[in-house]
TrEMBL record:
Residues 57-214 form the Ribosome recycling factor domain. Pfam families: RRF. This is Ribosome-recycling factor, chloroplastic. The keyword Transport does not apply. Gene3D superfamilies: 3.30.1360.40, Ribosome-recycling factor. It comes from the Eukaryota.
Length: 216
């Protein structure tokens, strides 16, 4: 449900003045800070879920002891004059837990793809095949596992910050849209429940990745 609050004549005049003074770019850089003083809980819930989805994608790119397409599908390859994600120039599969298979759409891109994989920070050494590359996934040392876990926790912190920023912006919209103090408190309470749920999801995602990384 969307909530809105009508503007008084004085407020409209003040906002027009503010708009004029902000033409130099010194005003808010938040696209959500519009003159339409409405609050739609579903919109903000979607923003929270997008933050969790972004975390899921980032975590999938981290190396684990088990081969997965997400480890390399995002690697940028210089082909056709522009950096292109590996997933756009090849099909990636994991035939077993220690191997990734890269089947190229265009065999002429093989040198570029091989170079991109070798230059990635994953420490992988691909082997050329007739139609692509085989990428062995070496065993992870305990030190490597710990370092990857640190990266997972950093990604989790980034997601938490994103969620806090979303909550902060949503609160501003609630304050402008609520027709009464009681309505504001009710909307803020509902928002906090969603924010708490998202924080729990972020923590569980990082914990699950930790377990996956440290599993021998």
């Amino acid at each position: 449900r969307a909530y809105s609050k009508k503007k008084g004549k004085k407020q409209v005049v003040e906002e027009r003045a503010a708009t004029t003074s902000d033409e130099d770019g010194s005003g808010s850089d938040d696209e959500d800070e519009s003159e339409d003083e409405t609050y739609d809980a579903k919109v903000w819930e979607s923003k929270f879920e997008q933050a969790v989805h972004a975390l899921d994608v980032d975590l999938s790119h981290l190396r684990t002891a088990r081969a997965s397409e997400g480890m390399i599908d995002h690697i940028m390859v210089d082909v056709y004059g522009a950096p292109t994600p590996l997933s756009h120039v090849a099909t990636i599969t994991a035939p077993n837990a220690q191997t990734l298979s890269v089947t190229l759409f265009d065999p002429s891109t093989k040198p570029s793809v091989e170079k991109a994989i070798m230059n990635s920070p994953l420490g992988l050494v691909p082997r050329a095949t007739s139609d692509g590359l085989i990428v062995p996934i070496p065993a992870m040392t305990q030190d490597t596992r710990k370092e990857v876990c640190k990266l997972a926790h950093k990604l989790g912190e980034t997601a938490k910050i994103a969620a806090r920023n979303i909550r902060h912006k949503a609160l501003k919209h609630i304050k402008r849209a609520a027709a009464s103090e009681d309505e504001q408190k009710r909307l803020e309470k509902a928002l906090q429940a969603v924010a708490d749920d998202i924080a729990s999801k972020i923590a569980s995602r990082v914990a699950a990745k930790d377990k996956e990384i440290m599993t021998l």
